[in-house]
Amino acid sequence: MTSNTPPNFRSGFVTLAGRPNAGKSTLANALVGTKVAITSSAPQTTRHRLRAILTTDQAQIIFVDTPGLHRPKDALGEEVNKSTYKALEDTDLSVLLIDSTRPLGKGDIWVFELLKTAAKGADPLVLLTKTDIATAEQIEAQRSALAAFTDVEPLLISATEGTGTDQFVEAVTALLPTGPLWFPPDVETDQPFETLIAEFIREKILRTTFDEVPHAIGIRIDELDQDLKRDLTKIEATIFVERDSQKGIIIGKKGAGIKAIGIDARHDLETLLGTRVFLDLRVKVKKNWRKDAAQIRRFGYGEGV
Question: Element (H or E) spanning 59, and its range?
Fold first, then answer.
């Protein structure tokens, strides 16, 4: 918490929740104007409860980007769901994100009721996302489906094009209580560098692999050494998978896969760190790590860290 808060300043924690691939991380990045959360088309991309911090003249809004709520298939799924439940306990306002391009389903209604219960009966704000690729008919169908169980008028938003974001920030600001600056105005996330680095590496793997491989990935940062005099950051990281076949896919023919992952990751890491980056990636097999709660927490996922 910082001092010298302006009069009538508002602040609070706003949880972004929804089913997987509703656009939570893309919105978090758009709101703060920089990349703090990874994105991909793979389900359950987000594993961390990440805070994206937006400070305006009127308010400081700490958006909590949560993993998509889903029926867990393993201990990893259970841990990331726990992370979202925990976020709901510590929030001033909850926002339900619904993909405009997909018909409203039982899962969306389940998340709505979960948010309402956490807010002691108050309906959450509702965002219809991805409106840039949705048809007018799809958006109207979502409005009609929502009207069956809530009087809340949904806000329309496209995080990729930036439409609707200003109206959303205004609506959130009006609902927050007066409060202090929890973080310095220039801070955009509270995630440690090690976590961001691991996530940026994982993102590149998510975008280049398929089937079960993306879900089996865990990243550990083994060394992070910044030499500002040389304008160089040395990073050594280990990519863990569950089977030898997955290791082969990551490495690729004659190392082409791991080389491409490293090249793509360095671009984001150099932007994040503001220096040149030397990135050394290794791949190891740790069988069935997603079923081991202790191992999951060693990778930094879940509430036990």
Answer: strand 59-65
**Residue tagged 């094009």 (tokens):** 161
> Could you please report the per-residue DSSP string of 248-268?
HHHH-GGGHHHHHHHHHHHHH
Per the CB < 8 A criterion, the answer to whether 42 and 211 are in contact is no
pTM score over 0.90: no
A 10 A CB-CB count for 220 gives 17
- On whether the CB atoms of residues 149 and 96 are closer than 8 A, the answer is no
Cα 182 to Cα 29: distance, rounded to the nearest angstrom: 19
**Lookup: tokens for 171:** 């609506």
Between 85 and 151, the higher pLDDT residue: 151
Q: Can you tell me which residue has the tokens 């220096």?
A: 275
- Residue 109 has a CB neighbour count (10 Å cut-off) of 17
User: Distance between the two ends of the chain, CA-based, in angstroms?
Assistant: 22
